[in-house]
Specification:
The complex is a heterodimer of chains A (318) and B (1009). Chain A has helices at residues 8-14, 25-34, 44-78, 85-95, 99-124, 142-148, 153-156, 171-178, 193-202, 236-242, 247-251, 268-277, 289-298, and strands at 204-205, 210-211, 222-223. Chain A is mainly alpha-helical and 318 residues long. Among the domains of chain A are: 2-36, no CATH class; 43-95; 97-130; 267-318, no CATH class. A two-stranded antiparallel sheet of chain A has the order 1-2. Chain B is α/β, with parallel strands linked by helices and 1009 residues long. In chain B, the strands form 13 sheets. Chain B has a seven-stranded mixed β-sheet, sandwiched between helices. Chain B is globular and about 80 Å long. Classes of the chains: A mainly alpha (318), B alpha/beta (1009). At the A-B interface, α1, α2, α8, β3 and α10 of A face β1 and α30 of B.
Chain lengths: 318, 1009
């Protein structure tokens, strides 16, 4: 249907979600699906498992040899074959059981175990992407920028204090520094290939240090790591500006991450737990003036987000 | 308390038809087809246990498999260069001008990430004064209409590009001008100074050009009468706010007449009984209009007799004033001395009264001018100096154009957003005439009837993509600015005209051109004007013009043309939702139930109960209609209370043959029935009307008895006298309600509430559409409405009551059927109804999964992701305001409106969840707006200001009937309103403690209600 639109540039302007200029998308999808999680690249576990199996098999064979030899000795001494454990004690006990009740009991127990497991799986695994760390179109390191260089988070994620989204910085924000920083000294006089990706997106000519005229800009398509479902509303400014929550509370030690991963579970109980523990700073916000007076009169010092209605459904679900 | 008045929503309720009784207690219009479904799956098995196990096994394994899927990779794509003013996640607001009709309301466009998502009225504009009507708000969806033209067209269907088409058009225009062939630009009332400038430049290049104004609906009677009376061909400024007595003859000024939002704003200003003064509004009319339904005294009248009533009124007033009366042979008086009473009231309020008429007859309008002159209303309630430019159409010009076209003197026609091939009554003559033209251009944004006959279609931008200006009132300039770059390959008309006139490409850019029109302002004033959306010059002092018309002459002409007998007559009118039909492809206006008939999606032959019985018609019968030889086949019948006996009515604007998927072939086109009478268009016909009843039935999607809460005391009304004696009339009884529940502690923060003034609510439906847009409510279509499955979160309950002392509808008469004639004279009360956010909500206690719970701010919360769709809540709601998603309305091609295509989805409000199939939904009190408002205050380290947070409905309301606010704030408007003597909780006796309050309707009549 997009052929009806005036040009692909318009589409990008209308809504970035409809952008079809997939420059880096294919590449990113490929790498993201090939290698979605770095946690499971280690082979140690497999080797251990293999060894365990091997020893078990050897133990089994040794046991068989021993029991065979025992039987031969028994037959030689008594002249009869040795009754098995099953014949000797298990069968008489089994015969006392009601087959229907037994079968039902076993089925119930199995059913319950399956249900509990499935429930746990459903609640804690499905859709939970904790640790998700996809390959990004640019090998950007927060460790260098936020950790080593101590750039404030809100320099790049500038809207975190006044908008719903913290926003991934647009390429022109990167250019504030990377007009000058291109690491030629480390790449034999060439521009760093990662920084060059910004130049390719925005149309900067690093040789002449100028923007290329009439360049067809291509957005950098970052892979989204924190995917909150559509049914819940989250606003960064509420937490960063009003609640004064540190970025690291939810995003983890971002200043140590070479490659960003999802630190928190983003599950509802994780949200709710924080809302139960964290108290509202009623003293320093004039919005809470009346409430503050009242709490002071009542002699209360702690007023949690939950007490302020922060665990009510429609605070996030609407 | 015994409520004297018996209220009913439809005739079926008043007379207790068996269908109504059967369905009123049911939760759904029909039983759920469970058995049918099971029997089709399982027709040859005696038991379906095996199937159950099969399905069960399949679903378990399918779920397990589905769980193994990797979550989809999502992308977050930032701007390459972030525009300075656009912050993802935060809305931007721009002032602009609504162009859904010619009223020129100022509006504020809300955009998110560069997409307009909501239109609201602008406070700066004197016309809209902070409100917008239903049609104006729905206009946003027309931009996201997938049926819009994506490219200019040549020869009907060939898509072409602008460069090619410009070349061809320019050379054709040049050859026409060279041979002195006429070129005509046909435009709807256009009061844009820039457009006028562009036409002048075009004229310089092609001197044979003339501009013809053509509107689908004519108000020329007023224009010509004012020319005759005062030498000014204008529509005056009507100040209904300054009038203590209003007499309207059929003019639906609250619904469709000239500038309804402006008039509603003004009319409501003087409808507050608290001040002790409240205007008295008489309405003489034949069909029940929105205005009539809000009048204090409504008198059914045949429209063909209007002239004689107005002359009688003149004479009555003249008698009181001691001025010479008009010499007429017959005088009219209606039942109850209505003319005499209104004359008395008008005369008593000299200089503070107003008389208006719908009539398009200049002679009748001249008499109306004479009455207003005699009453000294000019300079006070009627201002002819600060006149209106909202309608400039005079038929003679257009008729001349059509005959010139037929004779072949006009060779080139440019239809600028006008569609006369559809709406001109003699469409075939125009169609034939167009064949003589060498060049026909249409600029409509969708391919309409006129566009399909045009050789070239050069689609205009939607007004949300355009630069422009308008002067709807003399001295009030309203600017239009684009809020999105053009979605399709379209071009603004002024750019097209300038390009064809050979202007330099840079000068032809709409922005540059509009700015150059206002170059005298200077950059600062220009920027401020664009920011505000308006440029207001100080009002001229209103003067009393000198009256020069010959009233006696006019009166004679009226008497001469009066129908002799008592024939039946047909009235053509506009519906509040669809108006003239230009927005026929907009599903929102179709889904809005008509404020009076509550019918969605169709037009119909509206008749009175008496006439229905006389002709043996019932509701939903299909008839073939022949009016003066013109046939309208298979039109369904609607029996309408309040309609005058002997009148029939059909709404205009339907029956479009060339428009998009929604409006195509919906209803019947009534424009061919418009008649030319002495040069003006007449919207009533008195004469040869014949009917032929067919055997067919057609169910009209009428919502009037859906979600009925019958039999309870919900409406309270009183007369002004009663109110003056006792302000808490009808609210005296204080209930001592004991609660079993532990209440919430609402004192900590906010306690939201809403006050709805039944006295102000006109029922216009603006709030319904506003809510529809704000909350991503799906459009369900006619078939689902018939099944009572409309999804509107708010509805306006329209209740009728008989205008007598309760004798019309006794228990016996209900069974025996009341006399049909009593249905002619009914009063109407409109009650907006949405979730009442009860403190002891009955829905909350029955939800098995806690999907609907209570919040400490008094909101009844609905959590969609928890809901499993038991519908217990809907069943337990006494107000019937919960809606169930029977389908996944988005992405479902069975609901082919706007939710199933990517362009239509751009109108979705990103702050509100799009609901899935199988969940319940209802009014959330616009919790997204509350949360956003609170957050802004917190961020800015300040207290919340009263009125800062507005719900979608309260923001849209043109009559300020809905007030939203914090009850805990003692200074808020709502706290004051909640203490008002008129305020009451609807169904208070049930003990559910709703958060909303309604305010008693007060009628300015002498009778006791």
């Amino acid at each position: 249907m997009f052929k009806n639109f005036k040009s692909s540039r318009n589409i990008a302007t209308i809504a970035s979600i409809f952008a079809t200029t997939a420059v880096l998308r294919a590449q990113a999808t490929e790498t993201a699906t090939q290698n979605p999680n770095l946690f499971y690249t280690d082979n140690t576990f497999l080797i251990l498992l293999f060894l365990c199996l091997l020893f078990l098999i050897i133990a089994y064979f040794l046991y068989r040899v021993k029991s065979h030899l025992d039987n031969i000795i028994y037959e030689k001494t008594t002249g009869q074959s040795k009754p098995t454990y099953y014949q000797k004690s298990l069968r008489p006990w089994l015969q006392t059981l009601n087959p229907t009740i037994t079968a039902l009991t076993i089925a119930t127990i199995l059913g319950l175990i399956t249900f509990v497991k499935a429930y746990q799986f459903g609640m804690n695994e499905v859709g939970v992407q904790q640790g998700y760390s996809p390959v990004q179109p640019i090998n950007y390191s927060h460790k260098i920028h936020a950790g080593k260089l101590q750039i404030d988070c809100k320099y790049c994620h500038s809207t975190a204090e006044y908008s719903k989204q913290a926003s991934i910085p647009s390429a022109n924000t990167c250019m504030n520094c990377h007009k000058f920083v291109n690491l030629r000294d480390r790449y034999n006089g060439n521009v760093s290939p990662e920084i060059d990706k910004i130049y390719k997106a925005i149309g900067w000519d690093p040789e002449n240090n100028e923007y290329i005229k009439d360049y067809k800009q291509k957005p950098i398509e970052w892979v989204r790591i924190h995917n909150l479902p559509d049914l819940s509303y989250f606003n960064h400014s509420q937490h960063v500006k009003v609640g004064k929550v540190e970025c690291q509370t939810c995003h983890g030690p971002i200043q140590e991450m070479d490659k960003v991963y999802q630190f928190s579970t983003l599950q509802m109980d994780w949200c709710i737990n924080c809302h139960r523990q964290k108290s509202v700073d009623v003293e320093n916000n004039k919005y809470y003036e009346d409430l503050h007076k009242r709490l002071k009169k009542e002699g209360k010092t702690v007023y949690t987000v939950e007490q302020n209605g922060g665990t009510e459904c429609s605070k996030c679900h609407y | 308390m015994e409520n004297k008045n018996k209220y009913w929503k439809g005739i079926e309720e008043a007379e207790l038809h068996s269908d109504f009784i059967k369905s009123k207690g049911n939760e759904f219009s029909e039983a759920l087809p469970v058995e049918e479904m099971l029997s089709t799956i399982d027709s040859d098995l005696s038991s379906n246990r095996r199937d159950f196990l099969k399905f069960f096994g399949f679903s378990v394994s399918a779920v397990a498999l589905a769980a193994c899927n990797k979550a989809p990779v999502k992308f977050a794509i930032p701007y390459v260069e972030k525009p300075q003013n656009v912050t993802p996640g935060n809305p931007n607001y721009y002032a602009s001008t609504c162009a859904s009709c010619t009223s020129g309301c100022g509006m504020i466009v809300k955009t998110r990430e560069g997409r307009p998502i909501k239109l609201d009225g602008s406070n700066e504009s004197a016309i809209s004064a902070g409100a917008l009507c239903a049609v104006g708000q729905a206009g946003i969806l027309t931009m996201y209409d997938i049926n819009r033209l994506a490219n200019p067209l040549e020869n009907g269907d060939e898509q072409t590009d602008w460069a090619k088409i410009d070349k061809k058009i320019s050379s054709k225009l040049a050859s026409i001008a060279a041979t002195f062939g006429g070129i005509r630009i046909v435009t709807p009332t256009n009061n844009s100074p820039s457009f006028a400038n562009a036409v002048n430049i075009f004229k310089q290049k092609y001197p044979t050009t003339e501009v013809i104004t053509y509107d689908s609906i004519s108000y020329s009677g007023i224009l010509l009468a004012n020319e005759k009376s005062f030498g000014k061909r204008v529509i005056p400024n009507y100040n209904f706010d300054k009038a203590d007595v209003i007499v309207s003859f059929g003019a639906d000024f609250l619904g469709t007449w000239i500038s309804p939002v402006e008039y509603t704003k003004k009319w409501t200003k003087n409808r507050n009984p608290k001040n002790g003064t409240m205007s008295r509004h008489y309405q003489f009319e034949s069909i029940l209009t929105l205005t009539g339904s809000n009048a204090d005294i409504r008198i059914p009248m045949k429209e063909s007799k209007e002239g004689i009533y107005i002359i009688s009124l003149y004479n009555e007033i003249a008698k009181l004033a001691g001025v010479a009366q008009l010499a007429v042979t017959q005088n009219a008086e209606l039942a109850g001395n209505a003319i005499k009473n209104s004359a008395k009231d008008l005369f008593a309020a000299k200089g503070k009264s107003i008389v208006v008429s719908k009539s398009n007859n200049p002679e009748i309008q001249t008499i109306v001018n004479g009455i207003n002159m005699m009453l000294g209303n000019y300079g006070t309630t009627i201002d002819i100096d600060n006149f209106s430019n909202q309608s400039k159409f005079v038929e003679a010009d257009f008729e001349k154009f059509v005959s010139e076209l037929s004779s072949g003197t006009v060779k080139g026609v440019i239809f600028v957003n006008s569609n006369p091939v559809y709406s001109y009554h003699n469409s075939s003559k125009l169609t034939e005439g167009l064949k003589n033209a060498e060049l026909v251009i249409s600029t409509s944004i969708t391919k309409d009837e006129t566009g399909s006959l045009a050789g070239f279609v050069c689609p205009d931008n939607h007004f949300l993509e355009s630069w422009g200006d308008a002067e709807p009132k003399n001295g009030l300039i309203s600017f239009t600015q684009p809020t999105i770059s053009p979605v399709f390959n379209t071009r603004q008309v002024i750019e097209s005209l300038l390009t064809w006139a050979g202007a330099m490409p840079e000068n032809a850019k709409a922005y540059n051109f509009v700015k150059s029109t206002w170059s005298s302002l200077g950059d600062d004033v220009w920027n401020k004007s664009i920011h505000d959306g308006v440029l207001i010059k100080p009002d001229l002092p209103a003067t009393v013009p000198s009256f020069v018309a010959n009233l006696a002459d006019s009166a004679n002409k009226i008497i001469f043309s009066l129908p002799k007998g008592d024939e039946t007559e047909l009235i053509l009118y506009q519906k509040v939702g669809l108006r003239d039909g230009s927005m026929a492809n907009n599903p929102w206006v179709h889904e809005l139930p008509d404020p009076i008939s509550k019918v969605c999606y169709d037009n119909y032959l509206s008749i009175s109960k008496a006439d229905a019985e006389k002709n043996g018609f019932e509701q939903n019968d299909v008839v073939n209609l022949s009016v003066n030889g013109i046939l309208i086949n298979e039109i369904p019948v609607l029996v309408q209370p309040g309609q005058a006996k002997g009148t029939y009515a059909i709404a205009l604007g339907y029956g479009r043959t060339q428009t998009g998927k929604v409006g195509k072939n919906l209803g019947k086109n009534a424009y061919p029935l418009v008649r030319t009478e002495n040069g003006y268009y007449s919207y009533n016909f008195c004469g040869l009307i014949t009917f032929e009843k067919t055997r067919k039935k057609y169910s009209l999607a009428q919502t009037q008895t859906h979600h009925t809460i019958e039999g309870r005391d919900y409406i309270r009304e009183a007369s002004l006298n009663q109110y003056k004696k006792n302000p808490s009339v009808k609210n005296d009884e204080k209930l001592n309600l004991i609660s079993l529940w532990e209440g919430f502690d609402y004192t900590k923060g906010h306690k939201w509430g809403m006050a709805i003034d039944l006295n102000k609510c006109t029922g216009c439906g603006s709030c319904v559409v506003s809510c529809h847009i704000e909350n991503n409510v799906p459009v369900v279509g006619r078939d689902e409405v018939l099944l009572r499955r409309e999804m509107h979160w708010m509805r306006i309950d329209r209740y009728y009551s008989f205008n007598d002392d309760g004798t019309a509808l006794t228990k016996e008469k209900q069974i025996d059927k009341a006399d049909a004639s009593v249905y002619e004279n009914v009063s109407v009360v409109n009650a907006p109804m949405m979730c009442q956010h009860c403190d002891h909500a009955p829905c909350e206690t029955v939800c098995p999964v806690l999907a609907t719970t209570h919040a400490s701010e008094g909101i009844n919360q609905m959590t969609y992701n928890r809901c499993i769709g038991t519908k217990y809540c809907a069943n337990n709601c006494p107000y019937k305001v919960r809606r169930f998603n029977w389908f996944k309305f988005n992405d479902n091609d069975k609901f082919d409106f706007h939710f199933n295509n990517e362009l239509g989805k751009m109108v979705i409000n990103p702050d509100v969840t799009v609901r899935h199939r199988g969940v319940m939904e209802k009014c959330s009190l616009c919790v997204q707006r509350i949360q956003a408002g609170k957050l802004t205050a917190k961020r800015e380290n300040r207290k919340l200001v009263d009125g800062e947070i507005q719900t979608a409905c309260s923001a849209a309301c043109p009559s300020n009937a809905i007030v939203f606010g914090d009850k805990n704030d003692p200074n808020s408007e709502i706290s004051k309103l909640f203490k008002d003597e008129r305020s009451y909780h609807m169904l208070e006796e049930v003990g559910i403690r709703p958060a909303m309050m309604y305010m008693t309707k007060i009628r300015n009549t002498d009778t006791t209600i």
